[in-house]
Amino acid sequence: MASAATESGVLGRRRWRWATITGLILLTAGALALRLLALGSKSLLTDEASSYYFSQLPISTLLWGLCDPHPPGYYLLLRGVATLGASEWWLRLPSALAGALSVPLTWLVARQAIQPAAPGATWPIRAAWLAAGLVALDKALRRRRR
Hints:
Number of strands: 0
Radius of gyration: 21 Å
Number of helices: 6
Structural class: mainly alpha
Helix content: over 70%
Strand content: under 5%
Order of helices and strands: HHHHHH
Oligomer: single chain
Mean pLDDT: 85
């Protein structure tokens, strides 16, 4: 009898993990779709244009001579992306991907940071989903304000 209870507990955890992973994949895909929607429809902003300019400098200048307060990693990434295309869409793609990947990261951090006060409490899980959902909708909410 104890083995049947143990098996059902293991199956329940597996279903919970599967449902969580599936939900995070769907939420992340939705966040990516929102971020890719009309990604290249507007011209570059000043900071985006300056990032593109810096990315086209010689690599030695990027690594050792640039007096920019930011590390050169983003400019090197943008340099690689710019080889695929220098349109607004391509130049904004790394930021859109990073924004979408922040959704599961937010869920994970919230889930780990919020510990239930009582065993079996479900509000920490709900709070993690709420945080991830707000991050997923962040781009749409900001676009709506403009």
